[in-house]
Amino acid sequence: HKHKKHDALQPCDTEYPVFVYEPAIKEANGLIECGACQKMFLAQQIMNSNLLLLVTDATCDCSIFPSFALKAKEVKYNNSVKCDRMRSQKLRRRPDSCHAFHPEENAQDCGGAAAISASSTLLLFLLATTALLLR
Question: CA quadruple 91, 94, 95, 101: dihedral positive or negative?
Answer without folding.
Answer: positive
